């Protein structure tokens, strides 16, 4: 790791907190040794809350740049999930469409796949998503082979992680893919994280009783 | 879970992002079904950054209440770690001293133990901390039995988790302790988290080559 790594992360109202902070804390940690630039991107610079419904416990994070001002050539663009993905996220979908052709890799965590599916970047690909929301998400990608038993799926430069903490494993795999196994091991040890290194090692498809959904178009 | 659960979490400049958001996302999730109140507590209501040194990638979170205004009777008070624990956290230590006698349980994650040790609440107890920082932290608690091989330690109402992601396991154990195994299992499945249920199941003491430190006072 010598060249600066540029990471973008989208945040919208009702995103799932750990979908975002799992992956980002890996880059927080790596940035102690390597040059990294991070943009936390939203429609405005106002704090963005994870709150989905009234009374729910939530946190608010401060974006660092707007969708309009964000670069479109990140090495990695991270898109968290959460109940907010079911609401008005059109500006984020438009940004993904616009940025994808010039972005290195994209990674959705959990139901962040809703935005990827709507942007069309899962067409003709294999992907996975949150296992509890599997049957709600898969109809959005009729041209996608949805893999039930996967901690994450990598298809070309499109990475899709399963629910919430699977984003940590997918991010470590991305780091390994780009910088080698030692960097990923060091990061996992730093986080004291009992990493899943095998993308097919997923107990949660069985917990939810789901099966692969094949493309219908 | 019928009575409202009140959770407090301290945030200071240079806290470790995932130390906080791992535990909190468990309560975000539980709060979809059960009444929970969360205070994110700092010296002021200004956003608090995880940044420790210039150039490091960081996130900023918005506190919801000040140390001065925070209640002192939370059911659970969470204290994250991070490099910021080595700086001026005196007001936080004072708050812990003041609140501890009327707080249900306290949980430190990672080097959040620095604040607990300085507040004196680890005296005469068993505790653990981040394994990479073990030898830096343990001298702060000369009256503490520091356990090297532990994912977390519970001693009375004082919970101490090992590094970063161990906070997720300790929080799930706290939920199990208070509300039963099914609530903790449901939360882990929701997070798609491969939980460690045994507090002694810790591979990272061996990674760092550390051993227990016994009290000297």
Low-confidence stretches of chain A: none
Radius of gyration of chain A from CA coordinates: 16 Å
For this structure, the quaternary state is homodimer
Globally, the shape of chain A reads globular
Q: What is CATH's topology name of chain A?
A: Rossmann fold
CATH class of chain A: Alpha Beta
- Strand percent estimate of chain A: 15-25%
Q: Describe the sheet with the most strands of chain A.
A: 7 strands, mixed
Tell me how many strands of chain A there are.
11
Q: Structural class from helices and strands of chain A?
A: alpha/beta
Please work out how many helical segments of chain A DSSP would assign: 7
Q: Label the CATH architecture of chain A.
A: 3-Layer(aba) Sandwich
Roughly how many Å apart are the termini of chain A?
41 Å
Most extensive interface between two protein chains, with residue counts: A-B, 50 and 50 residues
Q: Roughly what percent helix of chain A? A: 25-40%
How many separate domains make up the residues of chain A? 1
Walk across the major sheet of chain A and give the strand order: 5-2-1-6-7-11-10
Average pLDDT level of chain A = 96
SSE order and pairing:
The structure is a homodimer of 217-residue chains.
Chain A: E1 5-10, H1 17-30, E2 36-42, E3 48-49, E4 60-61, E5 65-66, E6 76-79, H2 90-99, E7 105-109, H3 113-119, E8 126-127, H4 134-137, E9 145-146, E10 152-155, E11 158-161, H5 166-179, H6 181-190, H7 204-208
Parallel strand pairs in A: 1-2, 1-6, 2-5, 6-7, 7-11, 8-9
Antiparallel strand pairs in A: 3-4, 10-11
Helix pairs in contact in A: 1-5, 2-3, 5-6
Organism (chains A, B): Trichosporon asahii var. asahii (strain CBS 8904) (Yeast)
Domain DJ-1/PfpI (chains A, B): 10-176
Protein name (chains A, B): DJ-1/PfpI domain-containing protein
């Amino acid at each position: 790791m010598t060249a600066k790594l540029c990471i973008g992360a989208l945040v919208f109202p009702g995103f799932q907190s750990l979908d975002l902070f799992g992956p980002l804390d890996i880059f927080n940690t790596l940035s102690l040794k390597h040059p990294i630039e991070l943009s936390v991107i939203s429609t405005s610079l106002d704090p963005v809350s994870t709150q989905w419904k009234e009374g729910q416990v939530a946190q608010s994070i401060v974006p660092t740049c707007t969708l309009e001002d964000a670069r479109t050539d990140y090495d990695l663009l991270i898109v968290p999930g959460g109940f907010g993905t079911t609401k008005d996220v059109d500006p984020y979908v438009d940004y993904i469409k616009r940025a994808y052709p010039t972005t290195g890799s994209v990674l959705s965590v959990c139901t962040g796949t809703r935005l990827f599916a709507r942007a069309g970047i899962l067409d003709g690909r294999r992907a996975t998503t949150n296992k509890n929301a599997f049957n709600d998400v898969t109809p959005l990608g009729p041209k996608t082979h949805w893999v039930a038993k996967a901690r994450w799926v990598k298809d070309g430069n499109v990475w899709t992680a399963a629910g919430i903490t699977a984003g940590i494993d997918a991010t470590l795999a991305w780091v390994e893919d780009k910088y080698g196994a030692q960097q990923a091991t060091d990061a996992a040890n730093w986080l004291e994280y009992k990493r899943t290194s095998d993308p097919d090692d997923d107990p949660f498809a069985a917990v939810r009783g789901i099966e692969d959904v094949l493309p219908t178009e």
